[in-house]
Structure formats: structure tokens, C-alpha cells
Amino acid sequence: MSTKARRDRSPGGVTLLEALLAAVVLAMVAGAVIMPFAASARCTLQDARQTMAVNLAQDMMEEILSQSFHDPEGDDGGETGRSTWDDIDDYNGYQEPTGGIYSFDGVLVDDPASVGLSRHVVVEAVYVSGQDVAEPATFLRVTVQVKYQGNVMTTLSRLVYANDS
Asked: Which of 1, 37, 114, 133 lies 20 to 30 Å from 56 when distance is taken between CA atoms?
């Protein structure tokens, strides 16, 4: 084969420009393909956190509602913590900070979906029209809020009647 014939053939390789162009196209396609999966993962985490918030609020509400409306001992003396509380209004103002949410039996909730969550309880006396406010309240409004990084995720509220019968 003559040298002229060898020079007329193009070399059989990929140029640097072609390789860079292929890399750019591949990066754009990969980004477009991965984006829905990333969004799905973010939504899944948000859904798990919302479910955890509702469960934590329900657990606290059930714990509170299992207590007596009136203090069985007649006063709040000696009730130093959650494990010794024996009536609904003992929970007023109770808060569990981020990373410090405990179940009723004192076990730290360490589920990954609970990271960043906090729990808050308010118990308010509710008087009906014409009721003397000097008398004990007939109703208590129990409100449990679960927050994620300070933003309310879920709120449960329940009106409890003083059933003395």
C-alpha cells in the first residue's frame, strides 16, 4: 500500500471534542433520569415524618386520656414527673424537645423519622355558659402538637368531660 493511500484514510478514533460532547450529553441525561428518584426519596422521608408525628401525637393523647379528670389525691403534691402524674391537668405545659421524645414507659423514641420532632401539650379549663368560674371546670381541652424544627406538623385537640358518676 502506498503512503498516499494511507494518508487518505481517516484515523479510526474519537477526538477529544467528541468525548467531551458525549460526556456533557450523558451528564444531562443522567440528571434528568435521577431527578424523579431524588424527589421521590424526599417525599418518602416527608411522609414517614408526617406519619411519625401523627403517631406520637396519638400516643400522647391516649396516655393523657387514660388519666383521671380530677386528681385522685386531691392535690398535685409529690407529682414530680410524667411517671407520677395521675390526672389530665398534670400534663399542662409538658414539652419534649427535639431528640428527647420518650414513650410512656420511658424508652427514647429513636426512629429515623422522629429526628427533628418535638412534642407539646396544653390543657385548658373550659367553662360552659352560665357556669361559675370559681367552681371546677366541667370540661378540659387537651391539645397535643408535634413540631418539626419548630413548624407544626400535626395538632390533636380533644374536649374531655368531667364524668363524676
From this structure: 37
